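Protein modeling request. Please complete all fields; requests missing the sequence field cannot be processed.
Requester role: graduate student
Desired output: 3D structure, token encoding
Chains: 1
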Amino acid sequence: MSVPSASDPIGHALLAYVHGNKKAELTVHSNVAEEEPLPASYFFRTLWEMPELERTALEECRGRILDAGAGAGCHSLELQSRGFQVKAIDASPGAVQVLQERGVREVACHDLFALPTGEHYDTILMLMNGLGLVGTLDGLERFLQYAKPLLAPGGQILATSSDISYLYEEEDGALVLNLNGPYYGEVEYSMRYGDETGATFEWLFADASLLQDYAEEAGYEVDFLGEDEQQQYLVRLTLKHHSQNA
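Delivered output (246 residues):
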């Protein structure tokens, strides 16, 4: 899912914001909704500008933390200020430059599936619908196995995701889903900043019951820590003891 550095609209929007253009704005295209603006400022929110689910997730963090898809580092910086050791990763070279300029101490430019072997984390943090980084249901299955050796004993994954079935509701409340097609939460996105359009990428919105099925099948305990009025939820995944080294 990493995008070549020549095409990095999100990174360039974040850099523009850091360097003084407070009106920098991305345009988000998807195959499920009208295109919509995304102000770069959203990536720079302070603790009290964050949704309650994100603040709850930060309270639940412990130990050495991996901030996956860290963006402009609002979560990493907050956790650093609380004394945590945080590694921030993002596939956008521009975002990584912003993370470094803003003072995140440990930063790397790669996607979720390119972590060096031998690293262990007490918390893997995936916010802003961050579970979507896995891309697809196949990617979710792959990630749940891939994360096992990354988790220190007793380690946790804290992630947010959403049920987007409401996008397919008719006026009478009936759902119109193609049951023979791909899962409705597998979405294709691209971002545009100015004249620059990035590559299309896949993003997964997993409804809670489906996420629970996949995670339990992979050997995780599933604990839902909250939900908001937009159908977004916060989940904690921890390995059942017998599968810690599976």
